[in-house]
C-alpha cells in the first residue's frame, strides 16, 4: 500500500530529477531516499525512474505515477481543513423539502438566507407534500422542510415562517372582479367552485370546509395543486379559495379578492426539522431559516 511519505518522496525526486537535491528538500540523506524509491518500484512491479550519471529521468509510468501522487497529496492536504469546515457547518449540504405552494412566497427568501448564513453550503431541493416531508425527515432523506402543520412526528421542531389569509380567485371578467370590498362566503353560495382534493390536498380542503359551505352540485373540478386551481379559474371554470401569496404568480385572467370570513393567519407554513439532527450546516443556518418571512416583501 502506498503511504503519503512514499508519495512525497517520489514527487520530490520526480520534480528535482536528482536524488541529492530531493534528499536535501526532504531534509534527509540520499541513501535512505534511494532505498525508499527502489522499494516502491519493487512493490509496484514497474520502473519509475531511469538512473543516469547526472541525475534521473522519468519513465512513462513514472510520469503518470507522479501526476497521481500530486493529486493524492493535494487531497491529503485539503482533507483536514475540509473536515474542520464541515464540522463547523461552514461547508456541507442541506437537503430541503418544500411544498409547491411554498415556492410562491417562502422558498426564495429561505434560499437567500441560507446563502447569507452559510455561503459554502449547497442546498438540495426536494418538492414534496407535507406527509412526504415528514417521512423524509424520519428516514433522513431531507434535513428540513417547508410544510403545513400539524406535525405528528417524534422529535419534530418547527417555527412558523408565513401566515396568510385565504382569498377568492375569480376570472377577471367575473361580476365580482371589480369589487373593491371583501367577498363574503354567502356570496359564493351559487358560484361554480373549484376545490381541493380531500385525499391529496387535505390541509387546504379542510380550511375551505371550515370557512365556506360548498355543496356538491357547486363543484366543477377538484385538484391537488394550487397552481392548477388558479389556472382553471383563469380558464373560466369557476372560482376558488387560495392562499394570498398566490398573487405572486401573476396568473393572467385572474383577480384575487379578500374573503371576509378568512382570519389573517388561516394558512400557515412552517419550517420543520428534527431537533436531533446531526447536520452541522443545518444548525448553523437555523437561526436565519426559522425567522418569519414578510409576505409583503417582493420575492427575490
UniProtKB/TrEMBL annotation:
<dbReference type="Pfam" id="PF03466">
    <property type="entry name" value="LysR_substrate"/>
</dbReference>
<dbReference type="InterPro" id="IPR005119">
    <property type="entry name" value="LysR_subst-bd"/>
</dbReference>
<dbReference type="InterPro" id="IPR036390">
    <property type="entry name" value="WH_DNA-bd_sf"/>
</dbReference>
<dbReference type="GO" id="GO:0003677">
    <property type="term" value="F:DNA binding"/>
</dbReference>
<dbReference type="GO" id="GO:0003700">
    <property type="term" value="F:DNA-binding transcription factor activity"/>
</dbReference>
<comment type="similarity">
    <text>Belongs to the LysR transcriptional regulatory family.</text>
</comment>
<keyword id="KW-0238">DNA-binding</keyword>
<dbReference type="InterPro" id="IPR000847">
    <property type="entry name" value="LysR_HTH_N"/>
</dbReference>
<keyword id="KW-0804">Transcription</keyword>
<dbReference type="GO" id="GO:0032993">
    <property type="term" value="C:protein-DNA complex"/>
</dbReference>
<protein>
    <submittedName>
        <fullName>DNA-binding transcriptional LysR family regulator</fullName>
    </submittedName>
</protein>
<dbReference type="Pfam" id="PF00126">
    <property type="entry name" value="HTH_1"/>
</dbReference>
<feature type="domain" description="HTH lysR-type">
    <location>
        <begin position="2"/>
        <end position="59"/>
    </location>
</feature>
<keyword id="KW-0805">Transcription regulation</keyword>
<dbReference type="InterPro" id="IPR036388">
    <property type="entry name" value="WH-like_DNA-bd_sf"/>
</dbReference>
Amino acid at each position: 500500500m502506498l503511504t503519503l511519505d512514499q508519495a512525497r518522496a517520489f514527487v520530490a525526486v520526480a520534480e528535482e530529477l536528482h536524488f541529492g537535491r530531493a534528499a536535501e528538500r526532504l531534509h534527509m540523506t540520499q541513501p535512505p531516499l534511494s532505498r525508499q524509491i527502489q522499494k516502491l518500484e519493487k512493490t509496484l512491479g514497474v520502473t519509475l525512474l531511469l538512473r543516469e550519471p547526472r541525475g534521473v529521468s522519468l519513465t512513462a509510468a513514472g510520469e503518470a505515477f507522479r501526476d497521481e501522487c500530486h493529486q493524492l497529496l493535494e487531497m491529503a492536504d485539503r482533507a483536514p481543513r475540509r473536515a474542520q469546515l464541515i464540522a463547523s457547518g461552514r461547508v456541507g449540504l442541506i437537503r430541503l423539502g418544500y411544498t409547491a405552494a411554498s415556492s410562491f412566497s417562502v422558498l426564495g427568501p429561505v434560499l437567500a438566507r441560507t446563502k447569507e448564513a452559510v455561503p459554502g453550503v449547497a442546498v438540495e431541493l426536494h418538492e414534496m407534500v407535507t406527509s412526504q416531508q415528514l417521512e423524509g425527515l424520519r428516514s433522513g432523506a431531507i434535513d428540513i422542510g417547508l410544510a403545513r402543520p400539524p406535525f405528528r412526528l417524534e422529535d419534530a421542531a418547527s417555527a412558523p415562517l408565513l401566515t396568510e389569509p385565504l382569498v377568492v380567485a375569480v376570472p377577471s371578467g367575473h361580476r365580482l372582479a371589480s369589487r373593491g370590498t371583501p367577498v363574503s362566503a354567502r356570496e359564493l353560495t351559487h358560484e361554480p367552485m373549484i376545490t381541493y382534493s380531500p385525499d391529496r390536498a387535505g390541509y387546504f380542503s379542510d380550511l375551505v370546509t371550515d370557512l365556506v359551505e360548498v355543496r356538491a352540485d357547486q363543484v366543477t373540478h377538484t385538484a391537488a395543486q394550487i397552481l392548477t386551481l388558479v389556472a382553471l379559474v383563469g380558464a373560466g371554470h369557476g372560482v376558488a379559495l387560495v392562499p394570498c401569496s398566490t398573487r405572486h404568480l401573476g396568473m393572467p385572467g385572474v383577480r384575487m379578492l379578500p374573503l371576509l370570513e378568512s382570519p389573517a393567519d388561516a394558512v400557515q407554513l412552517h419550517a420543520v426539522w428534527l431537533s436531533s439532527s446531526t447536520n452541522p450546516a443545518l444548525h448553523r443556518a437555523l437561526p436565519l431559516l426559522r425567522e418569519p418571512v414578510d409576505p409583503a416583501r417582493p420575492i427575490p
